[in-house]
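Input.
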Amino acid sequence: MSRKSKRNERPQPEAARAQRGMSRGAIFLAAVVALVAAFAVGAIAWRSHQEEAARQLATQNAARLSVPYAQTLGNAEAKVHIVEFLDPACETCAAMYPHVKKLMAENPGRIKLSVRHVPLHQGSEHVVRMLEAAKAQDRYWQALEAVFAGQERWVVNHRVFPERVWPHLEGTGLDLERVRREMNAADIEARVRRDMDDAAMLKVEKTPEYFVNGRPLPRFGLEELRTLVREELRAAYP
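Output.
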């Protein structure tokens, strides 16, 4: 009899085990890929749901975004309106502020910015009161920029030391004695409470938080803000 072809020989036990191992590995890899894909799809669906919920919440509470006492920068007739909820002690708020101003400068007359205050840091409410009092002297923006510029000297480990803020306001043209007298007035107390209440209704839990023509950012980020502003600019100025 002729010898059997090697092609028809029964696989050796070692080879069979190797094949079975490879099969198990392929099955495991396929399962991992499927699990990752399912997680990614679920994450996208969850994020989409969260974004839609935020949009609906902002729409339902549109009247809470703009208030007459909010300080507004830019052309009053601008068709793109950014409402920012900020904490003067927030490092990210200070970092984002120049970028918002740059967006406005790149689109002169088309964007306006209104600021609401959310003092989330311990002691930050005192600084908010200073800023609110600065409005009466038409020095709000000068005060805000001075506060941001010196932030690292009056915020330590997320705690605010209000007395360290005063030196940074000296070059703003403010009558600081007047600020001291007026910062605890009843109308300022009412503004602080109103801003906090509106922020709570809009689910503003971190700062800065932006709304562009009533639309919340889908996710926080400078590029996300730029994208949303560009969309509203195209719609408002075709």
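Confidence is low (pLDDT under 50) at residues 1-8, 43-49.
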